């Protein structure tokens, strides 16, 4: 007897419709879960990115050390030009399949002790262990008790530290080094969690590029001031010239616009320009550098043929070019999900402000 597949229990179907993004990319993986899949090198790259974008007020420079001879430094944040000889913080990156244990990092304590004792660098102001699964209970307790941490490091020195600091020599805890350990400030040691890093990183312009999940909500744009600002003078001058071509009269100031249709058009164009300016600011804070400039280039490339065609006058040219911008199909740029028709009109005027487009025939 042939079995019928229809009699086999089917898995339950999704309760909501599948989106195009889900079909293309699969389910969204939370950032903390995604970090667990990173290689150690990718993890260091993420921590470097976090320090660079999230701590700009804290550091003058952020530098990644990698390879042999890094002296126990992974990511360093320098507060002044003296770098390793000045005020700096170390972010020691660990990517294991478990929360960090004391046995995982005894040698790291030893390295910062030895290399600062040897004069290779000044002792860091802060020293953070950074691991996607964080510090385990035993290590967290030691990090919270500087005296106990010193005591345990000394007890573990011969077994876990002495022969692991360098590949060329053993580092016994002799009397002078022991005196340095006794005086060393063990309160500099702490740990950062992946949750802390992700929460900070969420506010950076590179977060969505790394983790996906869509752009944040875009705030409302500013309304144009009553008087034309210096930042918009170039495209406004061109617009007034275009209106002059249309009416056959010289228009040197918006107050000289007597035709209601043109007055309303001018108001809409200024609103569109400020809308596009708000998109520029939003892009600066929400997407990687160059994304907004790429959108300008896309729109410029899409309207330039219309721009260069013959038009009865400058006003007709403006109308034709902005319509071409609104009608364009743009699918690749990350900002396209949060743009509107006004943005496209405004971008045309941003291009005119840069003299990449001209509204008058001459």
From TrEMBL:
Cited InterPro entries: ABC-3C_CTD6
Source superkingdom: Bacteria
Domain called ABC-three component systems C-terminal: residue spans: 232-359
Pfam family, one: CTD6
Protein name: ABC-three component systems C-terminal domain-containing protein
Organism: Xenophilus arseniciresistens
